[in-house]
Amino acid sequence: MPPHQDLRHHRSDRGKSPQPSLRLLRCIETKPGGLRKAGAVNTDDKKIERQLTVLLRKSVRIHLSTQRGDVSLERSAYGIMCQLADEGPQRLGALAAAFGLDPSTITRQVRDLENAGFASRQTDPSDRRASVLDLTPCGRQVLEQSREHRRFKLKEALSNWSSSDLNDFGRLLQEFNTSMDRLAAFGVLVFTNGFVLG
């Protein structure tokens, strides 16, 4: 099904065949030979989209293959803990916005971290009526061990890359994430568990 197609129809008269909605007509237009694309897609765009799809498909396997055997952190827990370690204590609403999650979802995930002793809530120094989430000393230790192990496994996987390629890859990944953040700020993208779905 085309990505922008709206399956809702309206009828001008009972008994007549349903007509495409105005929303559908605004999104795509037909012409002899098929549908007209909204914009031209070059070879680079196709290659990037294809490789992102492969990366998303492999994301669970990558997470499992690079985590420590004695400390098993789910992707959601790892993502939240990294956010707290890198950006500092945050309110749950800010975490939900950062990951594009429903507040109830982030609340459940945070509760699991609190029950494990990896995170705790503290009074927000800027507003004592509110609270912020931060890592506990145990949580920081577990995260650092997990990150160190992950860096080691990634180093093994990329051992045949040159220093120049590694530097370019890290730089371009950083630029890519910045671009994605900019688009997300305008509501263009949807994020779930820290991954771009588009």
Task: Describe this protein's structure.
- The protein is an alpha+beta fold and about 200 residues long.
- Helices cover about 55% and strands about 15% of the residues.
- The chain has 3 domains: about 1-30, no CATH class; about 70-155, Winged helix-like DNA-binding domain superfamily/Winged helix DNA-binding domain (Arc Repressor Mutant, subunit A, Orthogonal Bundle); about 160-198.
- It has helices at about 20-25, 45-65, 75-85, 90-100, 105-115, 135-155, 165-185; strands spanning about 10, 20, 30, 35, 120-125, 125-135, 190, 195.
- Strands 1-2 form a two-stranded antiparallel sheet.
- The model is unreliable at about 1-35 and about 190-198 (pLDDT under 50).
Secondary structure: elements and pairs:
Layout: E1 9-10, E2 19-20, H1 22-27, E3 30-31, E4 34-35, H2 43-66, H3 75-87, H4 92-99, H5 103-115, E5 119-124, E6 127-135, H6 137-157, H7 163-185, E7 191-192, E8 195-196
Antiparallel strand pairs: 1-2, 3-4, 5-6, 7-8
List keywords for this structure.
14% strand, disordered N terminus, two-stranded antiparallel ribbon, Arc Repressor Mutant, subunit A, 3 domains, 198 residues, globular, alpha+beta
What's the level 1 CATH class of the largest domain?
A: Mainly Alpha
Distance between termini? 16 Å
**CATH superfamily descriptor of the largest domain:** Winged helix-like DNA-binding domain superfamily/Winged helix DNA-binding domain
Shape label = globular
Structural class, by secondary structure, is: alpha+beta
Mean pLDDT: 76
List how many beta strands DSSP finds.
8
Strand order of the largest sheet: 1-2
Order of helices and strands: EEHEEHHHHEEHHEE
Q: Work out the helicity level.
A: 40-55%
Which spans of ≥5 residues are poorly predicted at pLDDT below 50?
1-36, 188-198
Q: Sheet bearing the most strands, described?
A: 2 strands, antiparallel
Topology-level CATH name of the largest domain: Arc Repressor Mutant, subunit A
Strand content: 5-15%
User: With helices defined by DSSP (H or I, 4 residues minimum), what is the helix count?
Assistant: 7
- The radius of gyration over CA amounts to 22 Å
Provide the CATH architecture of the largest domain.
Orthogonal Bundle
